[in-house]
């Protein structure tokens, strides 16, 4: 999985459409092998991003959980601590 695609479900505040689209873009880039598609592939690439984004939004909206929402600030601090431990910075 792409390292830049982050979990978007069960956070407070909820994931925005921009965050979902950014994850969809990374997913389509990974599948296609293009970071920027050629003009010939641009339409198909954009359509795929739109479709993945819409599917992801539906998925996130339909999931249910009994767990408390995670706090974005706390999760960011945990990620920073993991990075510091891993890379020694």
Helix content: 55-70%
Give the averaged pLDDT, no decimals: 90
What overall geometry do the principal axes of the alpha carbons give?
Answer: flat
- Rg on CA atoms, Å: 16 Å
In terms of quaternary structure, the protein is single chain
Question: How are the elements arranged and paired?
Answer:
Layout (H helix, E strand, L loop, with lengths): L10 E2 L4 H16 L6 H24 L7 E2 H16 L2
Parallel strand pairs: 1-2
Helix pairs in contact: 1-2
Descriptive overview:
This is DUF2277 domain-containing protein. InterPro entries: DUF2277 (IPR018735). Pfam families: DUF2277. The mean pLDDT is 90. The protein contains three helices and two strands, in the order E-H-H-E-H. It has a two-stranded parallel ribbon with strand order 1-2. The protein has one domain (11-87). The protein has 89 residues and is mainly alpha-helical. Helices cover 63% and strands 4% of the residues.
